[in-house]
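Protein modeling request. Please complete all fields; requests missing the sequence field cannot be processed.
Requester role: graduate student
Desired output: 3D structure, token encoding
Chains: 1
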Amino acid sequence: MRQIHQMFTTMMTKLEKLDAIEADMKEMKHSLEFAHAEIADLKKENDTSKANQAKEKIEKLEQDNTTLRNKIVDLQARSMRDNLLFFNIPERDKENTTEMIHELLETKMEIHDARNKVKIDRSHRIGRKRERNQKPRPIVVKFNYHQDREYVQLNTKKLKGTKIGVSEQFPEEIESIRKTLYPELKKARAEGKRARIVRDKLIIEGHNNGS
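Delivered output (211 residues):
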């Protein structure tokens, strides 16, 4: 009887140990699952952080790129400050565009002795040579002095009735903005308001629109 009791006691002790081991295993499993969840959360946070950092870098690069592009456009505009474009001047074989412009200034725009009074640094046609029956290419003229360019531009009204046109030269980016402002310019003038476009801005009676 005593032997049976001892065996029972031993079995109970072993069962209790097994229960304790099982409990420990469950706790370890729970801890392991918790650790996995923690690692997953940390990984997500890390991925999000990396994504945010990458996004910030991209935004910074885009801002720097925009700033650089604006500076380049501004430099281009400054380099064109003394330039004028002349349109619809017929092309000639072996032409001298500077001589042609001086001739235009004297004969059509009535600027006496333009060859000596208006100094031209250089001039040339823009674009590839066209067929004779096509519209002539514009001539870009760079004046030595800004006041000469202004003086010539003031006299462009004397070209009224001819097919020749004169305009300022701007970089493509600014020219695109100016094109969007022309309808508003016409509208303002139709309403009797004093309006003009200065570079990439529309000036209407003291107010300005544009970039």
